[in-house]
Amino acid sequence: MGKKDLFYSQIFRLVLPIIIQNLLSAAVSSADVVMLNYVGQSSISAVSLASQYANVLFMVFYGLGTGATMLSAQYYGKGDMKAVQLIEGIALRFSILISAAFAGAALFIPEGMMGIFTDDRELIMIGSSYLRLMSVSYLCWGITEVYLALLRSVGRVMISTSMNILAFTLNILLNAVFIFGLFGMPRLGAMGVAVATSLSRLVELLACFMVSSLSKDIKLDFRYLFVKNKVLFSDFIKLSLPALGNDIVWSVAFSMYSVIMGHLGTDAVAANSFVVVVRNFGTILCFGMASAGGILLGNLIGMNKLEEAKEGAKKLMKLTVITGILGGLTVLASMPVVLRYAALTDQAMHYLKYMLFINTYYVMGTAVNTTLIAGAFRAGGDSRFGFICDTITMWCYAVPLGFFLAFVLKLPVMWVYFFLCTDEFVKWPWVLRHYRSMKWLNNITRDDLY
Q1: C-alpha–C-alpha distance, residues 378 and 388, integer Å
Q2: Is 396 a residue whose pLDDT tops 80?
Q3: Structural contact between residues 95 and 64, judged by C-beta atoms closer than 8 angstroms
């Protein structure tokens, strides 16, 4: 088999389990919206707004996970498993601290957290109860995400995917049980989503401990939290924290879009709730390709096969364009189904139709930027570029523009939404230029760790 065929076969071997994992994650979100559709528009809107904190937390864990993967994938390629385990301990220190902070806020000040997104008392009341129950899931999630990211970085994608399949399947089943009160359980409505999520995350954490006990090398061992290695810790701070900062900057800015939409009315919020679910399905392949490509390129760079990594990056770009087109077609194909079954007001349905249409091309912008910034660049140890790029684009362009158009010029909802969805395309010139320069391609492993 030639090198070209070998690269494609390796990337598809990695990407398929990740796609399954992302598909199930999107299925859970869609199940929440579909089931709450039968409870009421207020429940959909409240859970959608409260879930912005989970979205931010997901990006925090994604940043920590990809930052850890950035180092561990290269050390795995080099054959240094001890370094991989030490990296896990460092990443867990950060994830546990951050998840505990979110859990504490959700437990003690949920009304304040909801008040950022809306001034509607009904939505604040529903969302606050939801957040209190979600606090347990935040704590479990912080541990499992780091461990599963490390498993993926060393090629154990099937184990990682199996854990997620367990959690997501259980989540969907428990959603139905607690939302509608099946099998004699209380009918909890929106609160049922939080109960189901927390229970499924707890089961996933227990399953991770079971897998760890059977693993010969990558274990979920809290003793590594206290093992110090100044060189690795310094590299983690230098390389991983910009990745974490990048994802926090991006996710908080994206949550600001929800703040803007939240203050434009419940119709806009409800419509956007459905759009987020559809867009998640449309970007499944894109995010899967970014994760798989980053792992594979990181392994090649760790082996010091830099020319092969360059060729691999070019092939990854071709695959990215294809996934972007497929993602847009997925959104387009979903429109008739979503518009038929969404139980929203006429105004919300009007918003939903045009928001979905905008996302048919928005997915392409997401695909290219995610694959390069979170995949290729981080595989080569370059997390700083993405942090700077997203900070400028989101906080100097998209967020201020959105607030200006919505609250100063008071433009119609759809015009505000259209301009918010230009953020990914504004990045393209700088992102593509940085990709072609190949300055991001670096072997970041060290020989003097111990």
Answers
A1: 14
A2: yes
A3: yes
